[in-house]
Amino acid sequence: MKSKIAIAALLLLPISGQYAMAEEAATEEKSSVTVSAELGMLYTTGNTKSGDLKLGLNVKHEEAQWLNTVAFSALAKKSEQENAATGEDDFETTDNRWDITGQSNYSIEADGKNYLYGSAYYEQDKFSGFKYQTSASVGWGRHWIDNETSSFFADIGPGIKYDVLRATPTTVEDSETAAIIQAQALYTNQINDFVEFKQYFVAKQALESDKNSTYKSETSLTTKLIDSLQFKFAFRVDYDTEVEEDFENTNTETSATLIYSF
User: Which residue in 41, 160, 193, 211 is deepest, having the highest Cβ count within 10 Å?
Assistant: First the structure.
């Protein structure tokens, strides 16, 4: 009898081994990383000469109950400007900005609708009134819509924002720390097999009335060219409530880029 049990156990070893390998492979499949890079260039000649370069990189990682995202964007622009000393036209940098955003979501429930998040942001803009701006926030969010064609998620939570004001001929470099409430939302709609619409919005509301609050919005339309290549048209608005003199509260950016996903 014992010999029969031993033989049965030996026969089951390959099956159990295959099952363990299949389970391990299934676990590995749940872990996925998606990377997309975008590039846009524009050079004009004639009455006005200018050159623009826009770069972007997005990384998305999903594993079990975790969703991690990192987004980087940069914009550089040179325009033909008259040199006051020589009277000749020279190319001068008229826009130079880059920012990076990172966020981690942890699903509280098995269906993944409610989640806890932590996010961080950093931006440098050479031609704004701020040398750099950074913020961090934690809180709660929910996937309100999640189907084959549309998705909508929003989250909200407390945080902190730190701004460094750029020195000017009449002022010295200064800094400001503020407690904030951060609220953000992303709506995505797959119009058809080739066209996707996205609307992103984030507000960082300072709790003190005399502190700077920021609002950002990006509206985009993406068209699929081939499996891994897309064309993206986007309109971005940045708004600061408190800025130094000679600086605008609102900045806008219109871009057209190619996106490669791998």
Answer: 211
Instruction: Say which CATH class 32-261 falls into.
Output: mainly beta
Residue 162 has pLDDT above 80, yes or no: yes
% of the chain exceeding 70 in pLDDT:
83
Helix/strand/coil (H/E/C) assignment for every residue in the chain? CHHHHHHHHHHHHHHHHHHHHHHHHHHHHHCEEEEEEEEEEEEECCCCCEEEEEEEEEEEEEECCEEEEEEEEEEEEEEEEECCCCCCEEEEEEEEEEEEEEEEEEECCCCCCEEEEEEEEEEEECCCCEEEEEEEEEEEEEEEEECCCEEEEEEEEEEEEEEEECCECCECCEEEEEEEEEEEEEEEEECCCCEEEEEEEEEEEECCCCCCCEEEEEEEEEEEEECCEEEEEEEEEEEECCCCCCCCCEEEEEEEEEEEEC
pTM of the predicted model over 0.85: no
